Amino acid sequence: MVITMDESKHNKCDQIREQLIELVDRESIGVTPGNSGMETLLVDGESAKEHVENCSACRIWKDQTLEMIDVAHSLPQFDVSESLTQSILRGVEQEDRVKQHRLAWVVYGSALSLFLYVLLFGDAYESVWGIGSWIVGLGTMIVLKMIVTEHPKKERQVI
Amino acid sequence: MLGSGSLWPQRKLTQTWTMGQVNNQRNATEITILADADLVGKTRSGDNKAFEVLVRRYQKLVYNVIYQMTRNHESASDLTQDTFLKSYRALPGFDTTKSFKPWLLKIATNTSLNSIRDRKGQQSLDELLEANPQAEPASAQDLEQEVEWRVSQHQLFEALGQLPMQQRRVFVLRYQHDLPYEEIADVSELSVSSVKSLLFRARENLRKILSEPVVISK
């Protein structure tokens, strides 16, 4: 395959541009045309700085690209209103409450199941063990209730 | 009633209250300088003040990224709120060895894309990401002319609006918000080389759009 002079020059321009943009991306803000990194950037023995000085297409490409990136950096950014922040935080609080309700239903359901089990199958009235199981059931309900109600109190204080 | 002796308890009380205030102030300052991973950990253990710090730290970035995608302030507000609620729900599954910012931005951009897709009907996500109003990469000859080339913020903003969503997203993350390639790859769920290729296409498309003569309507 024969590579013409034009193709070879074009390939070199592409390589230079590719490496220049990597350089710009590395140095990010504050990059100005003619920065020092270009001197050390070599493609086929020629420094990027030298190439850009002699190649008008690459010079224009570099100037346009750097200007575009500079403007992109300076694009205005909108501040977020306090009302939006507060509505996000209210949403989070609401989210916790929903989670809490779900947990409460599970706990109350379990407690009720335990109560019914003891009542129907535990011979609750007929022995000391029966009375003991009633006490255990009652204790379990109290502890679970404490777990469910303790958490939201703490969160209300934090928020 | 208040003699010189009775002043002592009052002074002590005032001093204690002031110290309490100082401590509260110090705690508030301490929490705001914590790293993201620590704040995530505290939020997981039920400290919602820590999540508030995360919200205040990233809400502006999230809002502006979403705004560039939707071009509408009302939608940007709603989607910012959705983003933080989704992230709060997903926080228990977040891998704290990874960076919080790209994770949050991934939620933000996916939420925005889903919302835009819903508004546009049946369009698939791929179609939406690639959909392009006009621009195609310009030929070298079109652009490489020695002409006065000055770009205003407004022109660039308008030109960005003409880019396909995928290109716009990577360009905005890279050049407006200074995210490194690796983080953009995380946010976009692409490889670093795909990000570089998208950035290349975005820059060339923007140069083409910005080089077109401006038609001034009467």
Give the gist of this structure.
The complex is a heterodimer of chains A (159) and B (218). Chain A is mainly alpha-helical. Chain A is 77% helix and 3% strand.
Can you walk through the features of this model?
- The complex is a heterodimer of chains A (about 160) and B (about 220).
- Chain A is mainly alpha-helical.
- Chain A is built from 6 helices and 2 strands; from the N terminus they run ααββαααα.
- Chain A has helices spanning about 5-25, 35-40, 50-55, 55-75, 80-120, 130-159; strands spanning about 40-45, 45.
- Chain B is mainly alpha-helical.
- Chain B has 2 domains: about 25-120, RNA polymerase sigma factor, region 2, helix turn helix motif (Rna Polymerase Sigma Factor, Chain: A, Orthogonal Bundle); about 120-218, Arc Repressor Mutant, subunit A, CATH 1.10.10.10.
- Helices cover about 70% and strands about 0% of the residues of chain B.
- In chain B, helix 2 (about 35-45) packs across helix 3 and helix 10 crosses helix 11 (about 190-210).
- Chains A and B meet through helix 1, helix 4, helix 5 and helix 6 of A and helix 3, helix 4, helix 8, helix 9 and helix 11 of B.
Oligomeric status of the shown chains? heterodimer
What is the overall number of helices of chain B? 11
Number of strands of chain B: 0
DSSP E strands of chain A, number: 2
Order of helices and strands of chain A: HHEEHHHH
Mean pLDDT of chain B: 80
CATH topology of the largest domain in chain B: Rna Polymerase Sigma Factor, Chain: A
Instruction: Give the CATH H-level superfamily of the largest domain in chain B.
Output: RNA polymerase sigma factor, region 2, helix turn helix motif
Q: Give the CATH level 1 class of the largest domain in chain B.
A: Mainly Alpha
Helix content of chain A: over 70%
Structural class of chain A: mainly alpha
Average pLDDT value of chain A? 76
* CA(first)-CA(last) distance of chain B: 85 Å
Give the end-to-end Cα distance of chain A, rounded to a whole number of Å: 72 Å
Radius of gyration of chain B: 25 Å
Could you list the spans of chain B in which at least 5 consecutive residues all have pLDDT below 50? 1-15, 133-146
Give helix and strand order of chain B, one letter per element, not per position.
HHHHHHHHHHH
Q: How would you describe the shape of chain A?
A: rod-shaped
Structural class assignment of chain B: mainly alpha
Identify low-pLDDT runs of chain A: 29-34, 153-159
Q: Most extensive interface: pair and counts?
A: A-B, 40 and 47 residues
